[in-house]
Amino acid sequence: MDKIAFFLPTRKGSERVKNKNTRPFAGIEGGLVENKIRQILATKHIDEIIFSSNDEICIEIAEKYSSDSRLHIIPRPNELCLSSTNLQDLICYVPTVTDADHILWGHVTTPLTGAEEYDKGIELYLSKLHEGYDSLVGVTELKNFLLDKNGKLVNNTTNIPWPRTQDLEALYEINHTMFLAKREVYTKQKNRLGKKILLHVMDEIHSKDIDWEDDFTIAEVMYKTLYNHE
Q1: S-S: 104 plus which of 137, 175, 180, 212, CB 3.0-4.6 Å?
Q2: Domain ranges of the chain
Q3: What is the pLDDT of residue 12?
Q4: Over the range 88-125, which residues count as b (16 or more CB within 10 Å of their CB) and which as e?
């Protein structure tokens, strides 16, 4: 079987949500970092975890799980951890720290995306490689009335001004749960999504992303409810 690596980046200095990666989350002392490492270690198909960070606290939390040989903690150069860092530079960096055949890029800020969700995505991806797909991305389906800046409805392909929402053309929002691609997508295309992308449609609960302080609070409530935490 081809080797699959999970690339998990964090960095110092969250600007919108203070200490979001390391402050306690839903009763988990090590916060989003500890939660995500636990989730990845529980997967069936991940052979290697590359935890890439310049944050000493994040690294200290990750080191609690260093006894598992799949986890590799790699301090990331500070120039690749700036708010001004070009994502392209980080993408080109990834294949230098793993020799995996396939790379899944995920984030600690999707705390409800657990082992089962990752395994489903990987299994779907592997089942479609023979059809020419070279990458997969987690998405959430949007079927609502969506307007452009001029107020024009952009996803109505019917001849009815107000069709049923289920008759609108579906659009898909990248939810940042997973970007899964062949190694050559990184090395040759210098991208984390390739030329033939498979959309992995997920429900809103498991794809919740923390980007703002309110998101942190909402995700914590959802997590406690979903996993029956007090």
Answers
A1: 180
A2: 4-226
A3: 86
A4: eebbebbbeebebebbbbbbbbbbbbbbebbeebbebb
